[in-house]
Specification:
By secondary structure, this protein is of the alpha/beta class. The protein is about 55% helix and about 10% strand. α1 crosses α8 (about 190-205) and α4 (about 100-110) crosses α7. It binds ligand Z5A. Ligand Z5A binds near residues 15 and 145. One of its GO terms (molecular function) is dTMP kinase activity.
């Protein structure tokens, strides 16, 4: 059995990750590829419980505690969902993964990069994404989209603009530092324009005609 490919979508608030994950998954399935669509935090039964702990109680976790909870959820997500799916030959498309920890807990909340790198080596190890699509929009544009979605403002949406600008800068720095894994996608266009750019990146990097 040929191992599947692992794709992650990353970006700040309202960049369009969820919508573009669903569109990409539909495009891959349309050409006959078996795909598992997933997300972080969460994506497996126990990791979804950790998601609830992180997001549903309005708690202000200490940055390191939050990084550790995301790491625990990710360890479960990998064991319960991602690695078995890839081993079965399915592709996996995840709405957020380990770059979210670098951006939010690292650049956003000040956890040292070395601490996060150590955690990543322990938890993710060799199971790094084959391709990471970083959806790039100015912070104000993403925040306006997220607020327009009408689900109420979450803890991060309520942070000041400079927090969101740090997230964006962090994602852009990751894309620059790891060009073999990452593609920076201009996500300021309409849904269709961004979906076309996403499919083009997957075609070019992973050699599948979409
Ligand atoms: N987090 C963390 O801190 N550390 C970690 O390691 C991980 C996560 C893994 C998860 O929240 C939170 O966990 C997240 C980071 C933190 N912080 N927050 N908030 P979540 O899972 O509940 O949601 P999210 O991942 O933050 O979603 P988002 O960033 O707010 O949205 P999005 O997925 O990028 O966007 P969307 O839902 O696809 O689209 C938002 C709206 O914009 C929607 O109405 C769309 O129709 C619209 N949209 C999207 N694209 C376009 C375009 N191109 N034009 C116009 N309108 C558009």
């Amino acid at each position: 059995m040929t191992r599947g490919r692992f794709i992650t979508l990353e970006g700040g608030e309202g960049a369009g990750k969820s919508v573009q994950r669903d569109r990409l998954v539909a495009a891959l399935r349309a050409v006959g590829i078996g795909v598992v669509a997933t997300r972080e935090p969460g994506g497996s039964p126990s990791a979804e419980v950790v998601r609830d702990v992180l997001l549903a109680h309005g708690l202000a976790w200490q940055p390191l505690s939050e990084a550790l909870l995301h790491a625990a959820a990710r360890a479960q997500h990998l064991v319960e969902t991602i690695r078995p799916a890839l081993a079965d030959g399915h592709w996996v498309v995840s709405d957020r993964f380990n770059d979210s920890t670098r951006a939010y807990q690292g650049a956003g909340q000040g956890v040292p990069a070395e601490t996060l790198d150590q955690l990543d080596r322990m938890v993710v190890g060799d199971s790094q994404p084959d391709l990471t699509l970083i959806l790039d929009v100015p912070a104000e544009v993403g925040l306006a989209r997220a607020q327009g979605r009408g689900q109420g403002s979450d803890r991060y949406e309520a942070m000041d603009l400079s927090f969101h600008e740090r997230l964006r800068a962090s994602y852009r720095a990751i894309a620059k530092a790891e060009p073999e894994r990452c593609v920076l996608i201009d996500a300021t266009g309409d849904l269709e324009a961004v979906a076309t750019a996403v499919r083009a990146a997957v075609q070019t990097r992973l050699g599948v005609a979409l």
